[in-house]
Amino acid sequence: MADSENSRTLSTISRGKKGSTSCASKKMPYVINRRNLLPVAARVLEERLAEIPRRTVSGPARVSELWPKWWDLHQQRLNAAAVRKNLERQLRDEVGARSEVKIEVAGEAEPRIVGSLKEISALTRLIGKEQVAQARALLRQRQRQWKKVNQRIGYTEVLLAEEDIKTSEGIAGRVLLVMQPYHLVEIAAKLHCMFVMKDPELKLEQDPWPQLRIMLKEIIQPRFMAAEPPVILASHSSASNMPFQQSDVLMSGAV
Q1: pTM for the full model?
Q2: Can you tell me the distance from the alpha carbon of 8 to that of 217, in angstroms, rounded to the nearest whole number?
């Protein structure tokens, strides 16, 4: 990683009352690099976005309102994935990852692994009716075992819940990326969302990814965040109007 991506944070510039410092600024690490950029940015964004005054009139959702909801969905999805992986491990240990049987076919070096009755029946010419019947009976037995364990530990329910959260997270993220930012910190929020969605491990080296990492790192540092005036950025093309209906649905808690 280039030296410019391993910057040291400067001394905190106070915001608000003289001499005051934010919690996020106090917790800023001495070095921001590829390993900690995204979690550090998330902590800063949670605080700074909350400081933006809420709208007093109705209108489309803002980045400052949608990013916390998207980030919460992202955390929920990570937690659900961890639970699902643990249940997968338990399921595999008890009855195997899925219901399947191995069938030896004459002349073939490796046994065939099949997971459906239809696949087994298709092998009748190769292995004979008797072996087909045995394989079908074994598969049915393993399917019953798998179903029993699945019902007991709730694996399918967790898997479906994870998929639902993943869908909602994806919708929220895509809407967020095309929304109009009105504050510098909202630009940082969009950059953070883009990295989490497109390059969560920050491994991409082709332009403009290194420059975008540097940009996010610089924006979240105290000398920028603390001195940011409440200036509304100029609106742009109709692209910013495109996600309004989706963002309104997201903000209403429908996802």
Answers
A1: 0.74
A2: 10
